[in-house]
Design brief:
about 700 residues; alpha/beta; Rossmann fold; seven-stranded mixed sheet; six-stranded antiparallel sheet; 25 helices; 29 strands; flat; binds adenosine-5'-diphosphate; binds magnesium ion
């Protein structure tokens, strides 16, 4: 069922309606009246006759007319009975405000399951529980009881009522933009993030989607939906809970897992979502995307009335990969003609006092700059909007004139202007005019520059859309029968992991370059196998009960003589028995000694929220100490494999520096893709660990592989 009938409900019952102004049961009815909600309003409270003039009902099933949605404002324990009663009428949806469900404890989880079962049985869709509610700003269906929420085109999904309140307050005080919907998703017991997202994608009143997320329940479905949505409408998202303590807080807040933030954020970005790191940039990013034409290319001009702001702005833009290119000679000539001698007419342009007597010069410059064919957007920094405040009122009128002209310019030329003004928080008519013309104004230079970056990021995503993954698994990659046999054999033996040589065999069947190992059952075997190998050999214990061979002192490297091999063989067996007396020892693996190269690791696992993910990092201390790794949700493309490799901080080591040779990046990319294919094909594999993989100037070798089965 589509969410339309509940988010655009034409009748609403309020269970727990009240006459007490401190209670949601009254605030909600009042805000429905204030917002001129056109649907029917039914208070439900067995003790009252009338509330705010509306007839009160004892229970929902007593209401004569149809009821689309029920706001349940009573405590958690009462919710099952309320929903059972709702089931007697064909109620379509319920918003459950109460806390004390899955976010709290085992008892709460059980209650949440019970409530969900009752809802499913009665075809009632649930918003929440543990939510601040839902608002449809266009129909006036305001179930949050919050007054003065500005109307507009931003659809807001939030897992925190207070973050929603922050964003709504920011919109009200600092912007002329507003909201189409607010939905507090709460615990996602029934309706999930991806369903709301789909609704907002198709909602004609919404043109930007703004999200605050702590954790989500069906991450992969969300990514798939986001991939389809972001190409139509920008999605701006803040994901909190990177820190361990933050995760703890988020876990208890929403009852969803917050973990694996790196996985989440890299996946969100690949799905075309604009991921914001700082809470004060969240609303501005959405506002900018809701206001301005796209930044077609990451090349902009900075226009300043002093050096300091221009320099800071340029620094921030560089970090955001936005170019501030040289201006054409023609542009420079036109600027020189209207600016004083002291002005800087190269990019960033510094008016240098040129506006002191006449701020309309800002509009002149803006026009000249945006007509330059190498310039796709403009960031104005400094005092604009405050000349009337700082110097003389008459200048304020000229600023208004400039604001009118710039507003019309953006519309005509279809290139964005963003304004930083240090007077951004003052009551300034020129700045108000800019906002009226959809030119965002910020008093923070960082925020203003970041918003330009956001426009660029969204445009970049559009232009590379075809190359992105849609996050759908099991697409045509075929299982290989011999590989399936290896897995079946292990399962038949009740093993939860493949032995090293089995794992390598499976990898080899998919084209991965693994060491050519043989399983020796006796020391004599080992000596015989080693004879055919020139470079020396490595012996490793083979036992389903010993996953970490070094821990059992079960690995010996660089063995060259028969004597050494025999000695190592018996020591390895002895060590293994000491380590685990009950270990089922299958023999010893004889592996050719690999040449030295750069050791990297590749791992895969099943993430609770997003399903299969892959990890890449440089081995040794880089992984253990610096945790320098990159994650991607599977499947990955050749391009994302490339980006993943280049993303880690120690990438220069792979690239080769100070005379060290560079590594075979192509071979590494292919191996990452092979791993992606394998995980895509065999749902029986839970975890894979290739550690180490040795990368050479030419070629690559998987030296150790572990595959854990589900
Ligand atoms: P485990 O991870 O189970 O302890 P490995 O197979 O990774 O066992 O062996 C431990 C270490 O021995 C590896 O990290 C690697 O440095 C080295 N090693 C293992 N096999 C080889 C090989 N074939 N050639 C060179 N070095 C090897
Ligand atoms: Mg290993």
């Amino acid at each position: 069922m589509s969410l339309e009938s509940i988010l655009n409900a034409e009748s609403v019952a309020i269970v727990g309606a009240s006459k007490d102004p401190t209670k949601r049961g009254l605030q909600t009815i009042r805000s429905l009246v204030d917002e001129k909600y056109e649907g029917r309003i039914y208070p439900v409270n067995p003790k009252e006759k009338k509330i705010l003039g509306f007839t009160c009902y004892k229970k929902v099933s007593d209401i004569e007319g149809p009821v689309d949605i029920v706001l349940v404002a009573t405590p958690a324990r009462s919710v099952p009975d309320v929903l059972e009663d709702c089931g007697k009428k064909s109620v379509k949806g319920a918003v459950i405000l109460a806390v004390g469900f899955g976010e709290m404890n085992a008892e709460g989880k059980a209650l949440e399951r019970e409530v969900l079962a009752i809802a499913n049985k009665n075809n009632i869709r649930l918003i929440g529980p543990n939510t601040s509610g839902m608002m449809n700003m266009h129909s006036g269906l305001n179930l949050v009881g919050l007054r003065d929420t500005p109307k507009g085109s931003i659809g807001l999904l939030s897992q925190s009522g207070n973050m929603a309140l922050t964003l709504i307050t920011e919109a009200r005080l600092k912007s002329l933009k507003g909201f189409s919907y607010y939905i507090g998703v709460g615990n996602e017991a029934d309706i999930k993030f991806h369903e709301y997202l789909k609704f907002l994608k198709n909602d004609p009143k919404t043109n930007v989607i703004l999200m605050y997320v702590e954790g989500m329940r069906e991450g992969r479905k969300f990514l798939q939906q986001a991939y389809q949505t972001s190409i139509k409408k920008p999605i701006v998202l803040l994901k909190s809970g990177h820190s361990e303590i933050g995760q703890r807080s988020a876990g208890s807040h929403t009852g969803a897992l917050a973990g694996m933030s790196e996985v989440a954020r890299s996946a969100f970005k690949r799905a075309g979502i604009i991921v914001i790191e700082k809470s004060d940039q969240l609303f501005p990013a959405a506002e900018t995307l809701a206001s301005l034409p796209p930044l077609k290319k990451n090349q902009i001009a900075i226009l300043a009335d002093g050096g300091g702001h221009a320099t800071i702005g340029a620094d921030i833009l560089t970090e955001l990969s936005i170019d501030v290119p040289e201006l054409s000679e023609k542009t420079q000539r036109k600027l020189a003609a209207i600016l004083p001698q002291a002005a800087s007419i190269s990019n960033p342009v510094d008016i240098a006092g040129g506006a002191d007597a006449d701020p309309t010069v800002f509009a002149d410059c803006a026009e000249i700059l945006l007509k330059d064919k190498n310039i796709y957007g403009l960031l104005i920094v400094g005092l604009f909007g405050g000349y009337g405040i700082r110097f003389s009122e008459s200048l304020g009128l000229m600023e208004e004139d400039a604001a009118h002209r710039m507003g019309k310019l953006v519309k005509k030329i279809k290139k964005p202007i963003i304004v930083h003004s240090l007077y951004g928080s003052e009551k300034s008519h020129p700045l108000h005019l800019l906002r009226y013309y959809n030119i965002p104004v910020y008093d923070s230079l960082d925020v203003a520059a970041k918003c330009m970056g956001v426009l660029g990021e969204y445009e970049n995503y559009h232009s590379s859309y075809q190359a992105k993954t849609n996050f759908v698994l099991n697409q045509g990659v075929k299982k290989i029968p011999e590989a399936t046999e290896i897995i079946s054999k292990a399962k038949a033996e009740n093993r939860s992991a493949l032995l090293e040589h089995e794992a390598k065999q499976l990898l080899a069947l998919h084209g991965a370059p693994v060491t050519k190992d043989r399983l020796a059952k006796t020391a004599g075997n080992a000596v015989e196998f080693a004879k055919k190998i020139e470079n020396g050999v490595v012996l490793k214990i083979v036992s389903p009960d010993i996953l970490h061979k070094s821990d059992a002192r079960g690995v010996r490297v660089n063995l060259r003589t028969e004597k050494d091999i025999r000695k190592a063989y018996s020591e390895i067996i002895k060590n293994a028995k000491e380590y685990n007396p009950n270990a089922d020892i299958r023999g010893v693996l004889v592996s050719p000694m690999a040449n030295a190269g750069t050791e990297v690791i590749i791992g895969t696992k099943i993430d609770d929220q997003f399903g299969p993910v892959i990890m890449f990092g440089i081995g040794g201390i880089m992984v253990e100490v610096l945790k320098d790794v990159a994650f991607r949700v599977l499947p990955i493309s050749y391009n994302s494999a490339k980006k993943m490799i280049r993303e880690i901080r120690s990438y220069p080591i792979l690239k080769g520096f100070r005379g060290n040779p560079s590594c075979d990046e192509r071979a590494l990319r292919r191996l990452l893709l092979t791993c992606s294919d394998i995980i895509d094909s065999y749902e029986e594999i839970r975890e894979m660990d290739l550690n180490p993989v040795i990368v050479y100037e030419k070629g690559i070798s998987v030296v150790d592989a572990r595959i854990i089965l589900s």
